[in-house]
């Protein structure tokens, strides 16, 4: 424990929208566990106006030092103190536009430009708003006060307890928070409206800027449902009297779980039945469930330090799927989990430059980087694997024990293993540490010999040609052999008696590993895929592993394409979505190759068969996932120049221009198709639709589609437009993300990033999570010379907090380059 730590903060802020600054005052009750004359706390980009200590009735005026590099404020006292004292500090900070700390967001209402002030403190940016012990373990209680213009309102974690008018301003005081970490504190000042409902004793509000509250109806409903779901699942009541869900026009990530005051991008909280898609609706549900899960996992029980970030993010990810699946079983969310979580987790963790779930981190820049597919996706997957292993009931009971034991305090991964292990009486720690403390995951080689199934494991790497040493994961193995399933813990190689005509390893894809089968076995599985006599999830799994084996040169590209034919009659969304993703990836990656036309025809053929069963319009009562599938197929066919798709898209688009009517689920696919086949005049039409778009969802769709033209001049225009004032910083990566999937546009991206790097960095500010998305986009390159060039450039123009992403991006480029080289040989 530190010598000095905080017990309670009394903080008051006054945002100034003319100077874009805020003035703050705080009184921190501190406890010194031993005699000390030095107090060190965090502060960044703050100007300290006054600093005083009151101890045993004496006022002490200390010396202070601010260190911009360590982001520390050191207070040197003329005499030693111990026990309790009150630290009073007055300060001024920037109401910045970088989406971190106490920042401003700009929007228009009825033609007038407006600002609001809001906070984003995770992971280490509370120190940009007030001097504090800005670490998850330094939990304290908070009394927040906000001084706002009379026409503004103020929001914080707790309800308002008093409002006092002082001239043109109103002072809002909020109730004392429970003991909590600084990264979860929240404050906002601006012109807000809301709708509300009650869930038990909890007041729920969906808060928006003026004119949008009606778009919060669906979210209000979801919030009620998920809040009560989690109260029942955890058997612990939500502890605060209110829960606000707040839509912020400018927002760095998707959403943030501030205790009692969750913030969102507008696209993830607002729903407009006329223009919002099924995908948006499901995403809203998922994110709301994710952030509400954090109210327990993260807020009530908090990781001791950021190395255990996964205790927050993996749980929220896993629990969100559980909750959505419970309330909306028809959405097949556990199936969709394979697309949304397992795909990204397996992908990142097959790089040498991945990292273990439990990873040492020190600086804020280190911490920011690990909000990635390891901490979210892989962690979510290993929880699914663990739940399967110990059983749903033990899992639920173990979580309850863990939460109860550590509520209003901090915990570690070991604490979690203790609770789950003692409830289930299973070797949870031994097994799970091989997944959490170790980088990577295994591929199981499966061979049949003499009526025996022989299984062995090694690490799966994309950049390895299959020659890695034996792995040491403790795998909760699940093998389907005909009608029965064999479960066992696999440590070393395993032999299983085999007297059936088929088997499939990783039954139901609950395990976080891949499988490599012999060719004869694959042929048998291929037939079962055709007959659909194995589950959709297993059909997904076989394709998913095969694709990865192909990219890592462990099977040939032609073998891969041959195998795809077994899926010609496939009708399941997750299976097809995986195949569509892979085929589109090849289409983009190989666009400069001589044999591109062959790939194109293969894809056309495959996608057309699927489309012929779907048609353009939603069929009464169809599964929501069928709707999602239709969108993906239409977009894919559009980009393959399918004549019928293009002509129908054109007619629906011109109808939209005339009537304003277009099925929300077809908007994205039609805009993309129109762009792909469009010229400068279509570009102008889309741009003007963008400028008039009624919601951010619609804007983002149009913005992304501006990156889907074929004409390089138009694409360059889109890139410049991306850095203009007309594109919010939060959306800057959207057209880039689309352009790298555009066979004609992908080569424009890297030169553009290189040329505009300074501007991009200054738009975001150092350490913004969106910067890493931009870096990641270059991984579509497939040339070893480019890899060297990119490495050189970023070494010269280094930005802290991008190291991991850069290493991963470079590794992907090398993988792509080798892959393309090997395919060239195949097609020669
Ligand atoms: N705690 C995060 C928000 C966050 C992310 C803060 C990165 C600081 C850095 C929040 O709970 C979250 O995970 N948001 C996700 C949405 C989620 C459903 C995947 C996001 O913003 O992408
Ligand atoms: Zn989260």
Q: How would you describe what is shown here?
A:
The chain is α+β, with helices and mostly antiparallel strands and 828 residues long. The longest helix has 25 residues, at 803-827. The termini are far apart. The mean pLDDT is 96. The structure holds ligand BES and zinc ion (ZN). Residues 122-123, 253-257, 286-287, 290-291, 294, 313, 316, 371, 769 line the site of ligand BES.
Question: What's the N-to-C terminus distance?
Answer: 66 Å
Classify the helix fraction into a percent range.
Answer: 40-55%
Beta-strand fraction estimate: 15-25%
Number of helices: 25
- Please count the beta strands (DSSP E, at least 2 residues each): 27
Rg, rounded, reads 27 Å
Assembly status:
single chain
Which small-molecule ligands are present, each listed once?
A: ligand BES, zinc ion
Shape: globular
Largest sheet: 9 strands, mixed
Low-confidence stretches: none
User: Which secondary-structure class do the elements indicate?
Assistant: alpha+beta
What is the mean pLDDT?
A: 96
Could you list some keywords that capture this structure?
binds zinc ion; 25 helices; 5-stranded mixed sheet; about 45% helix; 27 strands; alpha+beta; about 850 residues; 9-stranded mixed sheet; binds ligand BES; about 25% strand; globular
Short description:
The mean pLDDT is 96. It is globular, with a radius of gyration of 27 Å.
Map the helices and strands.
Layout: E1 4-16, E2 21-42, E3 46-55, E4 58-60, E5 63-67, E6 72-94, E7 101-109, E8 112-120, E9 141-149, E10 153-156, E11 160-166, E12 169-174, E13 187-190, E14 192-199, E15 202-209, H1 217-234, E16 242-248, E17 255-256, E18 261-265, H2 278-294, E19 301-303, H3 310-327, H4 333-348, H5 364-369, H6 374-390, H7 392-406, E20 409-411, H8 413-424, H9 428-436, E21 442-449, E22 452-459, E23 475-481, E24 484-490, E25 494-497, E26 503-505, E27 514-517, H10 519-531, H11 536-551, H12 557-564, H13 573-589, H14 596-614, H15 624-639, H16 643-659, H17 664-676, H18 680-692, H19 696-705, H20 712-722, H21 733-739, H22 746-764, H23 769-777, H24 784-796, H25 803-827
Helix pairs in contact: 1-2, 2-3, 3-4, 3-6, 4-6, 4-11, 6-7, 6-9, 7-8, 11-12, 11-13, 13-14, 13-15, 14-15, 15-17, 16-17, 17-19, 18-19, 19-21, 20-21, 22-23, 23-25, 24-25
This protein binds ligand BES and zinc ion.
